[in-house]
Amino acid sequence: MEGENGAQASPPDRPLLDDANVVTEVYIENNDRLACQNDDEFWTCGDDDIIRLYNLQGEVVMSVESRSGNTPEDMAVTQSGELLYADPDDMSVNIVSDGQIEPLITLDDWAPVAVCCTASEDILVLMLKSDDYDSDDDEFVLWTHTKVVRYSGSTKKQTIQWDDEGHPLYFGSSYFPKYLCENRNLDICVSDCDIDELVVVNESGKLRFRYTGAPSNIELEDFVAGCITTDSFGKILIADNNVFFRCIHILDKDGHFLRYIYNNKSEWSRDLFICVDSKDYLFVAEEETGRVTKIQYYE
User: Fold this and answer.
1) What are the φ and ψ backbone dihedral angles of 15, each rounded to 5 degrees?
2) For residues 265, 271, 275 and 279, what is the CA-based torsion angle, rounded to 10 degrees?
3) Is 234 left (phi over 0), alpha (psi -120 to 50) or beta?
4) Predicted local confidence at residue 10, as pLDDT
5) From CA 7, how far away is CA 182, in angstroms rounded?
6) Nearest to 269 by CA among 249, 246, 251
7) Residues 252-277, buried b or exposed e (16+ Cβ, 10 A)?
8) How many CA atoms are closer than 13 Å to the CA of 67, on its beta-carbon side?
9) Looking at CB atoms within 10 Å, which of 58, 80, 234, 247 has the fewest?
């Protein structure tokens, strides 16, 4: 169902649980990024060149080796169930279909670090560029430019980089990761870990708001921005990797803080990677322990 300007109309809202429930948890290997394939399976990639599809029993259903032999940086699942992954070392975005990998987008001097599949079946790619990039010295790159580009297949349709006053919307100054997703109202959400901000623009690329953490009267003081996802009610969920209280912030579509999600069985370890399935269950992967937790946060 669509609303104004083609945005998907949100279903009637459901109450959030005061305390989220852990439905199940499994332990796997190499969970450095996370993408839900369906309600029972999820993709992960880590510090090797293998992308793995797991079920909720922690069993490997499928594994795919990256085309270049590099470690993928991010993944997303298309409307038709195909897997996309970003390879910044190879400057490419690739598509996996029936176990076969084909390059979809190839870039010259921009490194793709995050990908998102939109409701209109476009692809959003968050990419970084360095004015001083040296391909012979890849130990550390000082990224100086960041932008989001919209593609239809491999055709570029839109670039989002500057605000109305000509200032950068995003900041790329170090190795810190960045995350990308589209909300149900077609807003584009970027977690900018360089400056610990959530930056949200509308479909046209106009800045809507920046989120820098919950109000100061709430117990958590230092917000450490991490992975983001959105759900069918237009809520924005963002991981907070604060070492004293790792949790998930739930925001409404306009950036207002609603509540935290935290593990009510045991504390999470660093870093957190998240995605939401079609029934609005939250999957949380921990880089340090290999644990993936499925959580119910709506009544």
Assistant:
1) -65, 140
2) 0
3) left
4) 61
5) 11
6) 246
7) ebebeeebbbbbeeeebbebbbbbbb
8) 21
9) 80
pLDDT in tens, 49-101: 999 999 999 999 999 999 999 999 999 999 999 999 999 999 999 999 988 99
Which residues, in sequence order, are CB contacts of 118 under 8 Å at separation 6+?
124, 150, 182, 186
Which residue in the block uniquely carries the two structure tokens 């990224």?
143
Amino acid of residue 118: T
pTM here? 0.91
- Of all residues in the chain, the percent with pLDDT exceeding 70 is 89
Is residue 205 within 8 A of residue 260, CB to CB? The reply is no
Full strand arrangement of the beta sheet holding 33-36: 33-36, 41-45, 50-55, 60-65
Cβ atoms 224, 239 nearer than 8 A: no
**What backbone phi and psi angles, to 5 degrees, belong to 5?**
60, 25
Of the candidates 272, 292, 296, 278, the one whose C-alpha atom is nearest the C-alpha of residue 56 is 292
More confidently predicted of 250 and 242: 250
Q: Which residues pair with 273 in a beta bridge?
A: 285
Q: Residues of 126-147 as b/e, b for ≥16 C-beta within 10 angstroms?
A: bbbbeeebeeeeeeebebebbb
- Integer Rg of the chain from CA: 18
End-to-end CA distance of the chain: 23
Write the DSSP symbol of residue 130: -
Contacts 24+ apart (CB under 8 A), 36-42: 36/77, 36/275, 36/276, 36/277, 36/278, 36/283, 37/77, 37/81, 37/83, 38/81, 38/277, 38/278, 39/277, 39/278, 39/279, 39/281, 42/275, 42/283, 42/292
Cα gap 124→237, rounded to integer Å: 18
